[in-house]
Amino acid sequence: MIDSIVGKRIEIVISDTYGPFLSICNCSDVARLEELIGRKYYIPFWTEKKGRVDGVDVIEYYFGRAADPRKLQEILDGVD
User: I need a labelling partner for 80 at 20 to 30 A (CA). Which of 4, 20, 40, 71 fits?
Assistant: First the structure.
């Protein structure tokens, strides 16, 4: 999955505290992501607003320490 604001691949990052997470900027990308992870795969997550890029909110999605970062990345990579 590509973040349409920054034009880069969305990658899963590992937090020592919270486990796998990702950052995303665009509202339409947010809707697509939530449809995918929440409604299609039923993956639990929580979000935090982390500032703005080019006037658009940056939102981080946290999946918890039990989530498999490789599987999460595979799901994201499967999005056109």
Answer: 20
Task: Name the pTM for this structure.
Answer: 0.88
Strands 46-53 vs 19-24: parallel, antiparallel or unpaired: unpaired
Give pLDDT tens digits along the chain (80 positions). Answer: 988 888 889 999 999 999 999 999 877 788 889 999 999 999 999 999 998 878 888 999 999 999 999 999 999 999 87
Q: Measured on CA atoms in the order 37, 20, 26, 59, is the torsion positive or negative?
A: positive
What is Dmax (Cα atoms) for the chain?
A: 33
* In the chain, where the domains are located: 13-70
The answer to whether 63 and 43 are in contact (CB under 8 A) is: yes
List C-alpha distances in Å: 60 to 27, 51, 52: 12, 10, 12
